[in-house]
Amino acid sequence: MDAFAYCSKYGKENYDEYRRRYRLKTDDENGSLKDRYDVEFERKQAKDVIHVITATLKSKGLETPFLILPFRPSQSDQALKDFLNLIFKQGGELLDADHIETVAEQQNEATAMPPGGQTNRLPKQLQQILKNNVYPPSPTSTVASSQYMQEIPKVTLRVNHPSRNPAELLSRVSRTLKFDNPTLFYTREDFLLLKRLFKNQDAIMDKLSPEGCRIMDNVCLYDEDLVSDGSSRGNHIRFKLAAGWSHDMTSQLSTKKSHAPDFFTADVSRASIDDYFIWAWMASLGNEETSIKKKTFGKTYIMEAQLAEGFKKWVIVEEQDFERDKYDLELEIKQEKLKTLETKIQSAQKRATTLMIKSSPARNDLYDITNHTDSQKVLPPPPPKKDYDKAPLPLEKDYNMSRNVSRGSRKAPPQDSAEVESARQYGETVQMEIPVEGKGPIRAEIPVGGNSEGMYIPYGGVNYVARLAHEQPIQIDYREKSQSPKRYSRSPLGQQLVEPVSRGISPVRDDKSAAPSRTSNVRHPCLNSGNSIPILGFGVFQIPENDTSSLVEKALEVGYRHFDSAMDYENEAGTCDGIAKWIAQDPINNKREDVFYTTKIFDHNQGYEKTKQAIKDCLAKAKPIGYIDMILIHSPRTNYEKRHGSWIALQEAVEEKGVRNIGVSNYGIKHLEELLGYPDLKIVPAVNQVELSPWLMRQELVDYCKEKGINVEAFSPLTRGFHLGDKDLNKVASKHGKSAAQILIKWSMTKGLIPLPKTVNESRLAANFDVFDFQLTDDDLKLIEHKGAYGIISERWDPSTYPLDSEK
Ligand SMILES: NC(=O)C1=CN([C@@H]2O[C@H](COP(=O)(O)OP(=O)(O)OC[C@H]3O[C@@H](n4cnc5c(N)ncnc54)[C@H](OP(=O)(O)O)[C@@H]3O)[C@@H](O)[C@H]2O)C=CC1
Ligand SMILES: O=C1Nc2ccccc2C1=O
C-alpha cells in the first residue's frame, strides 16, 4: 500500500481540541472526572499478567481455577458470560459469575489466581472446552471463536516524534491519510470506512463506540491524571491498564524530543482479527510476535467505532518510531531523490532502446509499452497467433520412478553458470551514490535484502535501512511443543522421506500426473515452462518474518519442497533463509533444485518500471538461495497498461535468469484472455493461483487454464478452517481415518490442483503433508463437492472479478 506523508510545524496541533472532546465524554455532569476503571497497572505488570494467563491456560487448561479475561472490564458479568458462551459456542450457561475475573478487577495482582486464593475448579463443560481448543486461538484458527474472524484495515503511522496517546495518534492519522485515490486502498470498503473515520479530524472521537471511549479513557493520560504510586520520590506516572500503549516507549522518546518538525507517514494494510479481539490482542503481546511487532508493542490502538446503532467497525492503528528503528530521515530523503533519478535514467534508457528497436525493420512488431500514455489509448491487442503448447502429458514412468529412487543416487546436475552469475549479482550490499551536502556525492555500501540478523530494506520503498534491535525473548513458550513423530525430525540421509514415498503414491485422476521427486513429495512435471513443481506447497501468508525461517526449515524436514510467499507477506527473507539453512544442514542431499520457491508482486508494484525494481528486490531477498523458482503477479487489480508492463518485466526476468517461471494469481478468464492477447507475449503463465475448494470449484476457470496449459494452484485450500466442521467432509474423513484438513488437501490434488495449505502449528504441518497414502473415490468427491457454489472465504478478496479497463 502506498504511503501517505504529512509534515507539520512542531506544535500541539489540535490536541487541545481532542482533550476537550475527550473530557466531554468522561467528565460527569459536575465536570469532575469519573474514572470508574481506575485500576493502575504498570505496563510490565499488565504484560506479565497476560503472559501468565496465557501460559496457564495453555499448559494446564483443566486446572485453571478461574478464567481471567484481560479486557473489557466494563462488561457486566452477564455480558462476559454471553461472550464466553459465544466464544465456546456450546450453548447453555457455562459459567458462574464467580468463575470470571477480569484483569482490571485484579488490583495489581500479577498472577492468575483468583482473589483470596480460592482454588475452585472450572465447570466440567468449560474444562472440556479448554482441553479441546488451542489457546489463544489464532485469528484464523478453527476453534469456535474464530467464526467471527474478520479482516480489518490497519493503519501504520511512522513518526519521528511519538504521539502522546491514541487521541493524538488518531489526529495524526487523519492529517496524513489522503482520500483522493480509492484504488490505493485494499478494498473500496476500507477506503469508505477510513474516509468516514478520518476525513474529518474533529469528528473522530464522536465516532468511537462506548467501549472505544472507555479504552480511550484509560489510555489517554493528562497532567491531572498523574497517579501517585506512593513512592518516596513523589508522583510517579503510571499508566492505567490499557491495551497496547507503551509507557516506556513514549516517555523514552519524549525526553529526547528534538525541535525537528513532526514528520509522519502512514501505510494502510489489513490484518486478520477475531471479532472479539481480546485473543488477538493477547497474542500480540506474546512471544510469537515478530521483533518488529515487539518493538512497536504498546503503540497499537484498536479503534472500535460505532457508525450507527449496532454497527461497529474496528480499525487497528499502530505507531512505529523512526527514531527507535535508527531511522535516518536525511538518508531517506537522499535515497528518495536518488531513486527518482535512477527511475528517470531507467526510463530514458528504455525509451532509447525502444527507439532503436523501432527503427530496426526486423523488430518492428515489438510492442512498445513506453509509448503509451493516458492520452494514447492502447488499442485492444490482436488475438495470439497460435494456441500455446499444452503441458506435456506426464508419463507413467515418471511416477513409478519414485519407488526406486534413492536420494543419493542421482548425480548433481551440472552447475548452471548463469544461475551462479545471477546469484553473485545480488550481493548483500549495493553501491549507491548518495549526495551529501558540502561533500558532493559519496559512494556508499548499502545493505539490502533480508537475513537472519534482520538487515533489510523494506520492500516497495527501498527507503531505509534498519537493523532490528535484538530483544531478549520473554521466557514463556506459547507454542505447542512439536508432536511430530521422530521420523520427521532432522534425520540421517533420507530417513524423513522414506515414509511418504514408500507408502506409495497411487493417485487417481489428474493426480496421476504427479511424479515423486527423488527427495520427497510428489512432483508435477507439467509446467508449461518444462520445469516441474511439487504438487503440495506450504503457504506462508501471515507467518511472522521471524518465525518463518524455522517453520520453513521444519516443513522441509517433514517433506515439503514448495513454498508460497509474496512481497506482501513480508516474510520472503525468512522463507529463503529457512531453505538455505535446510540446504546447509546436509548440502550433499538437501539440494536447492529440489525446492520450489514462489513469491508475488503486489498491486502497487505493477507497471514495467516498478515491477523491474520489485523483481530486483525479490532477488535480493532470495540471495541465500540463488534464484527464484516462480514470480506471480499477485492480482489483476490495476489496469491493462500496468498488468502488461509487469508481464513484460517478468518475461525479461526469465530471459535474464534468476527467475525460472512466471505466472499470475487471482486472474479470471478475462484477465488471462487479455494476457494471452499481448502482442509481445513470449511466455504463457506457468500457473494461475486462485482460491479453490469444494465450495468454490470455479470449473470454468480451471478448465480454461488447463486448456491453455496453465497449471492451477489452490490458495486457502483449507477454507481457512471455515468448512472443517462440515458434516459430509468429516464423514469422508472418518472413512479414511484422516482429518477434514487432510481430505481437503487431497481433494485439491485429486482435482489436479496444487494446494498451498498454511499452518503455524508443527503437528498440523506434518499432518497436512501426510496425504499420500490414500485415495478419494468418486463417491467421496460427490459427497464433498458443492458444484456451482461460489464460496469465497473473504468477500473482500476476490480480484478474479476485477473489471477490465473496458468494463470500468
Ligand atoms: N494469491 C493470493 O491472493 C492468496 C494466496 N494465499 C496462499 O495460500 C496459502 C494458504 O491460504 P490461507 O488463506 O492461509 O488458508 P488455508 O486454507 O491454508 O487455512 C489456513 C488456516 O487453517 C488452519 N489450519 C491449517 N492446517 C490445519 C489443520 N490441519 N487443521 C485445522 N486447521 C488447520 C491454520 O491455522 P494454524 O496456522 O493455526 O494452524 C489457518 O488458520 C497462504 O499462506 C498463501 O500462500 C492465500 C490467500 C490469498
Ligand atoms: O495470502 C493472502 N491472503 C490475502 C488476503 C488479502 C489480500 C491478499 C492476500 C494474500 O495473498
Secondary-structure map with pairings?
Elements: E1 3-7, H1 15-26, H2 43-59, E2 67-69, H3 77-88, E3 100-102, H4 124-132, E4 150-159, H5 166-176, H6 188-198, H7 210-219, H8 247-255, E5 263-273, H9 278-284, H10 291-296, E6 300-308, E7 311-321, H11 329-359, H12 396-400, H13 417-425, E8 429-436, E9 440-447, E10 455-456, E11 466-467, H14 495-502, E12 515-516, E13 522-524, E14 533-534, E15 538-539, H15 545-558, E16 562-564, H16 572-585, E17 596-601, H17 608-621, E18 628-633, H18 640-655, E19 659-665, H19 669-676, E20 687-691, H20 699-707, E21 711-715, H21 727-736, H22 740-750, E22 754-755, H23 762-769, H24 778-784
Parallel strand pairs: 2-3, 4-7, 15-16, 16-17, 17-18, 18-19, 19-20, 20-21, 21-22
Antiparallel strand pairs: 1-5, 4-5, 6-7, 8-9, 10-11, 12-13, 13-14
Isatin (ISN) is lined by residues 541, 566, 568, 797.
Question: How would you explain this protein's 3D organization?
Answer:
This protein is α/β, with parallel strands linked by helices. Helices cover 33% and strands 14% of the residues. The chain is built from 24 helices and 22 strands. The strands form six sheets. It has an eight-stranded parallel β-sheet. It has a five-stranded mixed β-sheet with strand order 1-5-4-7-6. A three-stranded antiparallel β-sheet has the order 12-13-14. Strand 20, helix 20 (699-707) and strand 21 (711-715) form a beta-alpha-beta unit. Helix 17 packs across helix 18 (640-655). It is globular. Bound molecules: NADPH dihydro-nicotinamide-adenine-dinucleotide phosphate and isatin. The site of isatin has 4 residues, from loops. NADPH dihydro-nicotinamide-adenine-dinucleotide phosphate (NDP) binds at residues 138, 140-142, 539-541, 564, 634, 665-666, 689, 715-721, 724, 739, 741, 756-761, 764, 767-768.
